[in-house]
Amino acid sequence: MHPFFDISAPSPDAQHLAYLAFSGEIRFGPAYYALSVDDYAFGSRIFGSPYQWSPSSDLLAVQEWLTLDYSAGPITALVVIHVHLRQEITVAQATKRFLVPAAFAGTSILYREEQAGQEVLKHFDLATATRQAWKAFA
Q1: Burial class (CB in 10 A: 0-12, 13-18, 19+), 128
Q2: Are the C-beta atoms of 93 and 66 separated by less than 8 Å?
Q3: Which residue has the higher pLDDT, 20 or 2?
Q4: What's the pLDDT tens digit per position in 58-107?
Q5: Cα–Cα distance measured from residue 9 to residue 59, given in angstroms and rounded to the nearest whole number
């Protein structure tokens, strides 16, 4: 695809780079992307364009798409990536809704659950996540 549609997203401290490479568009919907963070590509997984870096630059929240099937979706997940530990956690998953990272506040990630023009603000405290919930990605 054309790099004009790609999104380059440096961390606040400019030490890390999230790169969303345009992969396509769903019917009547938004674009989707392949994700890489620093030197790691997340393979065939697909992501939406919303992302949010933590102020400390160690966490990146992204919207993962779990299907491109127009009739089934959207099915999305909110994924938080710890760039220093090279681990990730799925914070939430939703069917027929988009989960959009909004901000980091202390140990929590704030996100919007969007559906049919309506949205609800939610949060997840990462400090409550079990060690087993974090998965190595590299």
Answers
A1: exposed
A2: yes
A3: 20
A4: 999 999 999 988 777 789 999 999 999 999 999 999 999 999 999 999 99
A5: 13
Asked if residues 74 and 65 have their Cβ atoms less than 8 Å apart, the reply is: yes
Token representation of residue 111: 């996100």
Distances (CA, A) of 47 to 24, 101, 107, 128: 11, 12, 23, 25
Give the pTM: 0.94
What does each C-alpha distance from 126 to 54, 123, 131 come to in angstroms? 12, 9, 10
State how far the Cα of 100 lies from the Cα of 33, in Å rounded to an integer: 15
Helix (H, G, I), strand (E, B) or coil at 116: coil
Q: Provide the token pair at 61.
A: 């929240």
Adjacent-strand bridge partners of 119: 114
Amino acid at 80: V
Q: Which residue reads 């798409």 in tokens? A: 65
pLDDT at residue 27, rounded to an integer: 74
Separation in Å, CA 44 to CA 21, 26, 38, 64, 65:
12, 16, 17, 11, 11
